[in-house]
Amino acid sequence: MKAVILAAGEGTRLRPFTETMPKVMLPVANKPIIQYLIEAIINSGIEEIIIVVGYKKEIILKYFEDYEEVKINYVVQKNQLGTAHALMQAKDMVTDDFIVLAGDNIVDHSSINKILKIDSEYAVLTKEHGDPSKYGAVSLDKNFLKGIVEKPNVEDHSLISTGVYKLPKGVFTTIEKIASEGEYSLSTSINQLIKQGVKIAAVKADLWMDIVYPWDIIYTNETILGNQPHSIGGYIEKGVTLRGSVAIGKGSRIYGGSYIVGPVNIGENCEIGPNSCIYPCTTIGDNTSIYSNTEIRNSVIMNDVHIGSSSYIEQSIIGRGTIIKNNFSTISGENLIKIEEDYKSIDHIGAMIGQDCDIGSHVVLGPGIIVGRKCSIAPLNHIFKNLPSESQVM
Hints:
Number of helices: 7
CATH superfamily of the largest domain: Spore Coat Polysaccharide Biosynthesis Protein SpsA, Chain A
CATH topology of the largest domain: Spore Coat Polysaccharide Biosynthesis Protein SpsA, Chain A
CATH architecture of the largest domain: Alpha-Beta Complex
Helix content: 10-25%
């Protein structure tokens, strides 16, 4: 059996972070999202993966060019028309039953095993979810799918389709027929199969997480870090305190007086401190410097970031290559955040800063503020409004 991973989309709701990379390559606990999925597939015993790529595909191909743990083939979706259209690109590579998964999801191997082993030609992985409105909600009849409802009434539905399916090769006949009518959603094809009398078994996932909005990176990072082992690959000076599960990469140096409480993941060739505090559920990417007397809590700091001394960062995301001067702070709290045409109320959120920003000293960012990539903020500014990419605040 083969696995097909749909990884062609941009992820517009994850901007500014997806302006420079496909959403499946966003880092969580210092690995791309799609790598967790690939590892779970491998642990399920599948030996060949087909990845459907499109938006900024060269980043995916480059990252996995020397990956030897499993055979990976690629097909290109030139126009991102929908999930069914993406799956159709893999038709010629699929020879038998297969599973299809979304590349921006994290699924554990035990959930994949469940759907592989169930005695049914068609199966779907489902999950209880508190916000079914952004997914296809499912209704069941004796553990078989009755239908998928797009944008359901929240009060009436809580069980969703994760988009993970086991399907036979013959499913492409229905998908192509539906696509010829201008419908490119996989859920539309699944509903058509149900109308034709096809029995689709429903299996409940153990672990399934979806990255839809920028703050999902923080929540997913928190979950992943909860399972990481303690490992020290760098140099720890005298006077450093480490508590809990702390992973420190090769070449990194933790200076005296620093205090780190796990779970924390620090990448390779980083410098932390002296006298800095890193608190639980924080990831710090490779080649990143956190200067003296800085405090970071429950945040994702990507590669090649520099954060000046006496700064405070909480519930935040700092994009790759961003340089922040001294005495920077984020305020964590509640905010109503607009993403495209939707408004989302988030209770406890800091700032989300895109790639390659330059932020001066004594800058404060309010709760839920999104700063686009390549923004420049002069010292002594308090920012309480989102900044589009390449903005300058004097």
